[in-house]
Structures are given as C-alpha cells and as structure tokens.
Design a protein that fits this description.
Blueprint (H helix, E strand, L loop, with lengths): L1 H41 L5 H22 L7 H25 L5 H8 L2 H11 L6 H18 L8 H21 L8 H21 L10 H28 L2 H4 L2 H17 L5 H18 L7
Helix pairs in contact: 1-4, 1-9, 1-11, 2-3, 2-8, 2-9, 3-7, 3-8, 4-11, 5-7, 6-12, 8-9, 11-12
Amino acid sequence: MNDAATLGTANAAADHSRLLLPLSLLVLYVIWGSTYLGIRFALESWPPFLLVGVRLLIAGVLMFGFLYLRGVPLPTGLQWRNAAFTGVLLLGISNGMMSFSEQYVSSGITAVALASMPLFATLFGIWYGHRPNRRETLGLVVGFAGVIVLNLGRALSGSHIAALALLLGAAAWAFGSVWSKQQDMPAGPMNTAAQMLCGSAAQFVMGFGSGEHFPAHVTLRAGMAMAYLVVFGSLIGFSAFLYALKHARPALATSYAYVNPPVAVLLGVLLAGERIGPSSLVGMAIILLGVAAITMAHPRRS
C-alpha cells in the first residue's frame, strides 16, 4: 500500500514537472524578451541602478511578506549567504549592467549581446562536471551563429564600456546560475524573494555610490514600465527561471537567451518604431533552430 502511494506521488510530481517546465520556459522566452523594452521605457525617468534596486525591492518585499504570512520557513543563515551571493551576481551585477548599457545601446542590441550567456554557462558548467552532450553543443553553436547573423547590418552605436558591461553581466548571470545549483538554497519561492532582496541592496549601493538620485518626476510610461518589470519581469519571470534552473539542464534552462533577442527586436519594431532587415529575420530563424536542438537534447546516460 505504501509502495503504491509512493509511486502515485512520484508520478504526480513527474506530471507536475512536465507541465510547469514548458510553461516556465515559455514565460522566460516571451516575458523576459519584453523586459528589455520595458527597461528602455523606464529609463526615461529612472537612473539605471536605482531602477533595478527599486524594482527588486518592491518585488522582493511583496513576495517575502506573502510567504512569511503563509508560514513558509525562513531561510537558514547558510541559505541567506548563498542567496545573497547568487542574488548579487544574477540580479545585482547582471541586471544592473543590462540597465546601465541600455543608456547607450538599443533594447534589441542589449538582448543580442546577452545571448552569449549560455556559452558562459556551458563553460562554467564544464568546471562543475556538467558537460553538454553533442546536440546541446550543436544548439549552442547554431544559436550563437544566429545571434551574429541577427546583428549583421545593424550599426553598433554603443560605447565600448557598454559592450564590456554586457559581457560582464552575461558572465555574472551564468556563473551565479551554475554555482547556485551546487549550493543549499532557500526552498521554492523563498529563494526568489531572498535573492531579490539581496540583489536590491547591491543595486542601491551601486546607485548611490555612483551618484544616482531618485527621480523628481516619473512619466506615465516610465511608471507603467516599472510596474510591468516588478510584476512580470521579477515576480513571475525570475520565479520561472529558478524553477527551470532547478528542473532542467543548464543549456535548456538558459536557452531563453537565444529567444529573447528576436522577441526584443520584434517588440522594438511594433512598439518603438525600430526597423528590421532581412538579416534580422534570418538570424531569428537560426536562433530558433538552435533552441530547438537544445530543447530536444537528452541527458547522457551515466
């Protein structure tokens, strides 16, 4: 009887994972692709680091307060330390560099540059013994080739410091993602809340330390963009990412970085009046082929 109950619970958990993992990836592909344009609109009023700090603080307090009132156990001291380190890397350095760079380059170009993140994740994953299989390697190569084609014919008007910031942000996100999988992290949504609170603290240090100030006036579009980033980009999007990171191989969990550029470019065309050329359409098609190769890859048998 106990064996039957245990088997039933295991099957239910497997069915739950089969449903939530594709849903989480869909959220990452579409919603996180839209946040690049949201950041661009929010920067009309907010300075880059305080923008991220306020966004994370609001989302983190809302989620932490909700979980606390529901009686969810608080993280241990070790879990707080691990969440702080990961939150600073993922939400502090990475999101901060992304927001900083969008002062100088378009939202689409920012997404394209950050598409190098899965390559960093694969590199750091090898360090921890997670070597990609052949199909995943092929998908990574094809996806990166698509990013290059996507950018052909588009003038890079951004400064060198913006390019370096984007590479730093991609590497920080990749290392934090891989490192956290080896650590004792808070359970479930509490992990999201803890990382957002710690990441927000890092952003306030970076913001006030660089001389930023809260805006005296926030435009309607910038205010709506901030609300969208809090609810969809942080609360929903980051929760989906942590779920995918826990239940999928690194190459699949980070494959959203290849879908975000075409989503960001298309939204720029539809909502910001940006133009898109034939090379961009070809590049996006190649990117989707790379993602398909990654998602259909199977772990090697040990």
